[in-house]
Amino acid sequence: MTAPASLLRSSGPLGDVDASPSPGELRDVLGRAGSWPWGGHGSQDEQEEGGQGRRQEEGETGEHEEGDGDREHGAGGAGRGAVGACESWTASVLCPLQNDHQLSVAELEQKYQTSATKGLSASLAADLLLRDGPNALRPPRGTPEYVKFARQLAGGLQCLMWVAAAICLIAFAIQASEGDLTTDDNLYLALALIAVVVVTGCFGYYQEFKSTNIIASFKNLVPQQATVIRDGDKFQINADQLVVGDLVEMKGGDRVPADIRILQAQGCKVDNSSLTGESEPQTRSPECTHESPLETRNIAFFSTMCLEGTAQGLVVNTGDRTIIGRIASLASGVENEKTPIAIEIEHFVDIIAGLAILFGATFFVVAMCIGYTFLRAMVFFMAIVVAYVPEGLLATVTVCLSLTAKRLASKNCVVKNLEAVETLGSTSVICSDKTGTLTQNRMTVSHLWFDNHIHTADTTEDQSGQTFDQSSETWRALCRVLTLCNRAAFKSGQDAVPVPKRIVIGDASETALLKFSELTLGNAMGYRERFPKVCEIPFNSTNKFQLSIHTLEDPRDPRHVLVMKGAPERVLERCSSILIKGQELPLDEQWREAFQTAYLSLGGLGERVLGFCQLYLSEKDYPPGYAFDVEAMNFPTSGLCFAGLVSMIDPPRATVPDAVLKCRTAGIRVIMVTGDHPITAKAIAASVGIISEGSETVEDIAARLRVPVDQVNRKDARACVINGMQLKDMDPSELVEALRTHPEMVFARTSPQQKLVIVESCQRLGAIVAVTGDGVNDSPALKKADIGVAMGIAGSDAAKNAADMILLDDNFASIVTGVEQGRLIFDNLKKSIAYTLTKNIPELTPYLIYITVSVPLPLGCITILFIELCTDIFPSVSLAYEKAESDIMHLRPRNPKRDRLVNEPLAAYSYFQIGAIQSFAGFTDYFTAMAQEGWFPLLCVGLRPYWENHHLQDLQDSYGQEWTFGQRLYQQYTCYTVFFISIEMCQIADVLIRKTRRLSAFQQGFFRNRILVIAIVFQVCIGCFLCYCPGMPNIFNFMPIRYQWWLVPMPFGLLIFVYDEIRKLGVRCCPGSECGDWAPGVGWGLERPQNTCPDL
Questions:
Q1: The whole model's pTM is what?
Q2: Among all residues, which ones are annotated catalytic?
Q3: So what's the pLDDT on residue 116?
């Protein structure tokens, strides 16, 4: 089968550039995991070095190294199910490398019109650069700034307010045509609504723009410089100027500047973790070792890191045509999902719009039935609709999201999309990477075996843990071997840098040994200088050991010492004695069994294990100046003395176990998805709490019962470790069933497509999924997840572009902080909305009574506008500063289908309970004010037609006093002010009860939220200012009022507070009761999480 023509490139250097494959094609290709280095088998170095105790354990447990079958069949292995079948043209479809790795040097020179010694000509390089463009990953097509700004003006709430503004303008036009004296109210209201939308839109755009600038500062994927040879001259150029056919050189510490066919290499090892998620170093050499270009050793991939050694090669792909570029393009094919908060706001807008139209239409019909003209009834309809629009809520939502984003930024979380903040709070499943997220992303010496004891090393990040006894002679010998038999070296100029954070040139294992030596010996580099190296055999896949010979530091001792490290079983077979407490003892069967026990024990922890030995060479046979020859091997490599074992692991971050425990307590399921070995993944998962103590996998149960695995009921296993090969053979339904059956899951040796499938399966079960990642291989899953979280330090640009949030410290614990903030923002938004909705009823009922009972209008449009945008917006926003209730992280994640931002119980409680009390307070104050001026309540009924007749200048009150139209208008404005003050006094009680949704306000404290206290004081001050500031009657229709009218609503405010405290007591005593349907208990699931992790 051949690859689609669109994905193949011309063989000539000036041929047509291949078109980018479709997302669907790439998705299918990525699914064929058999041809991928991480699609079900270990790195080559891992398999060859043999320094893995875990492999020894596999031999005992019956587990085999995954992918062996695929190695035999290349890319032609077959699979089925969730990830798709593997076909022979997988590699050629994925990348245009075709057979570059199999061509001879002469064929490569002919294909790319270059020279393996002199490189390209300068003129041809210029032509190729013009044809192919810069050697850089093309950033995703950016959204124009004006489109971003327009989106801020056209969200759900914004659209509702635009409609309300339009209605106000229409009402203004209708009333102006009738000569209404109050027509300016609707014009002012329309302008105010437009101003609110524009101002909050500008604020939201600024927040997004600021986050974008922070993210732009992380552009570090492509190296700045590359060493190139053109026309036989070697020089450095910007890496983005490289073209296919260029001859380049790289050394340890460099990033690979393009996809390169290796021509020469000396001890070159690369880190493919940004591509595969696998942290093991991989050797690069000129030989073609596999028919797949993705597995052969003679191809180095763009943006991977050269850890050690040197290499020279020809550029065969640049920019988007590289492997990295192809994977990155997958993310562009994954559609963005709506965030939960966006869905909730849409739901809220639907409710508000529906209620507004329903009440407006009802009022319109009533007005028509009782004799109003069509135009007048239409004005009533529009007034009701506008009264229902929560004008201040848009500002509240924007401030809440922005405030939380600011809090997260102070804790090393950058939020690209404000709505993602709340999504994190809704998260029920976190699919986390291992390397760098759960772990420290640095191999560290963890255990040592010498003197027949296993000793534990300090693996803490700050080296604050306990250490072992270092007085043994055996320890001193072992430490000397691991220091001298090591090619890693510190970069210069780092004396002031803590040892764990120093940059080292060398592979991960040797880096760990060097840092360990520096911490225990001190000045490891100086120690080496005291033992000059005279001969060395680097590690290779044939010997599986590394050997060096040194002169001794004592000038009086002319002997040499031979030191060796490597795969423990290979090192042991070259030894005839063992060092125990400084004494050489014969390596008999007893010591071999002790070695095997220790080896299996360390390997069972998922740690990389190396063996160490030494031999003093006699002065007689190997005098000073002896010419050691590694080719002739004129020195002994057997009969050595075994010194001990050292195991290494990438240890968990110190904060991760506590963070995972918090997730469990909060009912959030943490799933590890890694490209690492299953045993290592399981060990790390157990150490951080993803697999809890006492939990067993099917394999563990089978081993305990000594029965075959297929005889164990899988439902009895609480934990489950699934590797990439097993996942490839699973149907989607089987994966979903596994996720449902096993609360504790670990996926190892996974490919990028498999990670995407895992995310989709969790979402199919109704979970809100957060995914962490740092490599290019993670970008599709980051894009597909409900919230993608990229690493700021180790993360690739593709991952950061696909993510919604970036962790500047690469720390999993920061995600838990985000979860708490996300839950808090949902809690506080719900409080703000409940507070905002409550006053809709006292704003609406005046119009209802005005139409049906024909009393003089108790509340004007301008007065409502001041309530919405002046006095109430500050208390509403201040609820965003409310601290979390004490049990917020002890409740299950909210159910998106059941606990909505606005649901029927919340609306009913706000409208028909608290809102009704406020309406009674307003009308009590209104009729009190009217009665004290001579207008008794019964006289007010049916008074409206006479009251509003501006030709009637002698209307009599209950005492027979005559009122002119101007005097009546003055009294009407007084009633507006009285009703306004009544609402504000009740809203003070309302904001106090909204401080908590479940706990008593006394438990939360009245003064912990200082912003709220200031907002209440400001609210009262604004009320006084509007009432008593000179000129207000002529400008905004506010009148001075008697102090008694301030006192009338106070008993109602007290009633609101007492009533809600009783309701909260009922919620706490009777969880799940109807009185608590708007509280967090039902919202988040009143039941606390069980000790077991909940099902999805």
A1: 0.70
A2: 433
A3: 93
